[in-house]
Amino acid sequence: MTKSELVSKLAKANPSLTQRKVEIIVATIFGEIAAALSRGDRVELRGFGVFSTKRVSARASRNPLTGARVNVPEKHFITFKLGRPMHPSAQRVGAALAHGHARGGRRAAPRRRSAWRTADCRWYGSYPRVTYRENGAPYMGCINSDLI
Questions:
Q1: Which stretches within 40-123 are classed as H helix?
Q2: All domains in the chain, ordered by first residue
Q3: Confidence of residue 138 (pLDDT cuts 50, 70, 90)
Q4: 64: Cβ–Cβ under 8 A, 6 or more apart, which residues?
Q5: pLDDT tens for residues 46-83?
Q6: Do residues 126 and 143 lie in contact, with contact meaning Cβ atoms separated by under 8 Å?
Q7: φ, ψ at 85 (rounded to 5°)
Q8: What torsion do the CA atoms of 93, 95, 100, 105 make, to the nearest 10 degrees?
């Protein structure tokens, strides 16, 4: 969506405002966001996202063609982090909850037994089995194949 499309949609949604007034409102909002970011402030629009600035400090680098040492100056750039209601994973969870799924996502895979113990038992001609210690904790042991 371009800025002019945004202005025309807002003007159609608000018939009490003229298109020129909507253009002024949109330009003012974007101007204030740009001014806050140029000052280094953080702009948070609840339910939409957060605009902020990041700084990359000055560093020494090399020119890949000549191998000469080059000083790269400090840089500032703008970042945007999407708000939780706008995030696609949040939309998936919301849709899943609406359809009756308790956790929203895919089911977790079942836990697997540790491969090294199973391989260790096979190496010695045994079969893996679960035994329990005196305190009730499970323990993966081996049964000798000669006993079976």
A1: 88-98, 115-123
A2: 3-59+69-89 (4.10.520.10), 115-147 (no CATH)
A3: low
A4: none
A5: 888 999 999 999 999 999 899 999 999 999 999 999 88
A6: yes
A7: -65, -25
A8: -30
